[in-house]
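tl;dr need the bound structure. longer version: we got a ligand (P-hydroxybenzoic acid) that a collaborator sent over and nobodys looked at where it sits. i said id run it. heres the input, straight from their email, havent touched it
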Amino acid sequence: MLTQVAIVGAGPAGSLLALLLHNAGIESIVVERQTRQHVLSRVRAGVLEWGAVEVFRRAGVGARLDAEGHVHSGTGIAFGGEHVFFVDIERHANSRFMAYGQTMLQEDLYLAIDQANVQIEFEVDHVAIHDITTAAPSVAFTQHGESKRIDCQFVVGCDGFHGPAKSAMPAGVLRTYEKTYPFGWLGILSETPPLEQLVYCNSERGFALASQRNPMLSRYYVQCPLEDSVDDWSDDRFWHELVLRFPDRIAKQIITGPSIDKSIAPLRSFVAEPMRFGTLFLAGDAAHIVPPTGAKGLNLAVSDVHYLSRALIQHYHDRHDHYLDRYSEMALRRVWGSVRFSWWMTSLLHRFPDHTEIDQRLQEAELAYLQSSDSAQAAMCEQYAGLPFED
Ligand code: RFL
Ligand code: PHB
């Protein structure tokens, strides 16, 4: 097979990139390890920064997002078993965000990709990336037992945290930074009306989050030990624990019901630098992971793809590599900003195993300061809303 850009991974980063390139007349082929159905069934992110919403609109997948996404002007924070306050992002950062499920976004992207006739090869295995120090790299793989190869001009690794792309960089080039957290998030979906706002909660029993997908679909999370499995958490146990963590006036608004999805995710901060070597580029979770507390993972995948698509379009349309040469440093500036913010929110809101009474009181003191200080809220809002893209 022959194309201009070979993309490994058809999650949000890979599919959005393929679509933006297609819209600019640039050809790509995407290879994906899983089935289409598997990718569509993964329940993950739910919060889109306004900058990300605009990228999706520009890509031509804004219609359902605008019709069904729920626009929020801020988020609730609860702590100390009784305090609840609202952080007004519209007031402090002149921005809003959208609650819209990654599952729906992935459906929208695949639909647009089908309409555009962009080629995605699902169920590929043994992906190997070759010749990235040349202008003619290639991606070899097998599909249903048959060996195949894509010859191209650029390879983009959008293959998530466990994908092979970053290890195609020569030893000594890639630097990685990693921090794991001693707990996970147990998340459930239930067909019940959600709370009006998102509410993040610091409790002595551990972190909890009330989120949403649509008016009849709620998403809730509780911090849990890493050793736990979903079998340890019946629906009854989940709801019981969830309401114990929120202050009464929030807890009594929570409408419980059977879960339709339940999963546990570990929390990690990870960055791989640089995000380019030769003709290989990395985007999204392939290059960085953040704990979900700041809702930044999907949004960073979108900002990488925004920068990279602009760079490839400039390369092909203007025969100019200004943006390609700056892709890694530009993307990484935003990445480190979000890595820091997600780490800060995680540290502020979770209970750590070595936590003592003073640690709990220090978190509560910081939350009380956040509640009372306009400047502290403004600093948080600027980051939660998402920093602007660089020109
Ligand atoms: P993905 O979605 O992991 O897609 C990578 C794709 O690459 C494929 N792949 C391969 N393909 C071919 N060959 C191989 N060898 C391959 N290896 C892997 C995979 O099958 C997959 O299809 O990465 P991408 O596209 O960079 O997108 C990143 C986002 O999915 C991720 O950052 C977010 O889901 C993170 N996240 C959140 N982000 C937000 O911005 N807001 C949120 O509210 C939010 N909440 C969350 C989250 C992630 C969570 N979990 C489960 C980790 C909540 C949770 C619970
Ligand atoms: C979600 O709805 O899945 C969600 C919302 C906010 C977060 C993380 C996840 O910070």
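gonna send this back to them w/ a short note. DSSP finds twelve helices and 20 strands in the chain.
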